[in-house]
Amino acid sequence: MTETDFEDWPDPLQRHLKRVKARNSEHTLKNRVVTLEQWRDYCEEYGYDVLEADTDLIDGWLDDMRIEGYADKSVLNKAYDLSAVYGYLDDRDVIDTNPFDGIDLSWLANEPKLDAHSEIRYLDIEEYETLIDACRDLRDELVLRLLWETGIRVSEASEIRIDDIDRDERQIEIRTSKQQRGSNESRTVYYRYELAHVLREWLDGGGRNKYLHADSSDRLLLTKQSPKMPTQRLGEIVHEVTDRTDLQEVVYTDVNGNPRNRITPHTFRHSYAVHRTKNGMPIIYLQDLLGHSEIDVTRQYLKFRSDDIREAEKKYAPR
Description:
One of its GO terms (biological process) is DNA integration. Helix 6 (about 140-150) runs antiparallel to helix 8 and helix 6 crosses helix 10 (about 265-280). This protein is mainly α. The chain has helices at about 10-25, 25-45, 55-65, 70-90, 125-135, 140-150, 155-160, 195-205, 230-240, 265-280, 285-290, 295-300, 300-315, and strands at about 165, 170-175, 185-190, 250-255, 260. A hairpin with a 4-residue loop joins strand 1 (about 165) and strand 2 (about 170-175). The chain has two domains: about 5-115, DNA polymerase, domain 1 (Orthogonal Bundle), CATH 1.10.150; about 120-319, Intergrase catalytic core (hpI Integrase, Chain A, Orthogonal Bundle), CATH 1.10.443. The longest helix is centred in the first third of the chain and has 20 residues, at about 25-45.
């Protein structure tokens, strides 16, 4: 693994990973990167930046992994990885307090309690169409279609500039966090005619111009108060639309009493990956489209292809 493999991380995390690369084995570095990838996705699902996460969010992540069937040892290893990251950041005054202070890991000595919803949660096509029908304005529909058709993170959606979109080729340049500071690191995602139609209405049909900062902002998405739609607002739109349907359900309540819903912004990212995996997309292509630096993070979706193969074998086996 080279240093370019983690160039899209904020500078403090890049320095930490370089230190791990210099002083530890390749295996340790690989595990650290995979843990950080998973942790970043979890933070973004709940509207947090990795550098601003708190103790409650870490507790919730550990709870979720255990409920999803991770072995205690695996959860502990990821906790130790993350603890090392925040210890490094705390020692160098990058963060005000270490969110791992006060984290109790003793409960991981018990057997994991599996939940009926232990699988990766994703939307089927009919559920997605139900959500689209529940959108009350063009901007909400644009947000949902963008997440569904590209599989991008909500933090990445917030950063899209109009000039990032090639409407002739129906593709969008997604900037990494490092590129937002001036480098050329990026990846390209693609969209279909359904999103192209909504984009045309939004950009050419006056939808975007209804917002105060439309003339001065270069961002695709904006709000009445801000020239750039915050990540948190993107998440709120998903929750507001979902609440207008009967699709939402509380999967479980974490130890802090917070409900964990079935449909979140990250559910759209999972849906993107699951449907393409089930349709036979090579995992290396999916890794690039999702922007995973480690393919091990992408491999979690392969089990859905195995499920389809198993069902096909049953269907076509001689009676």
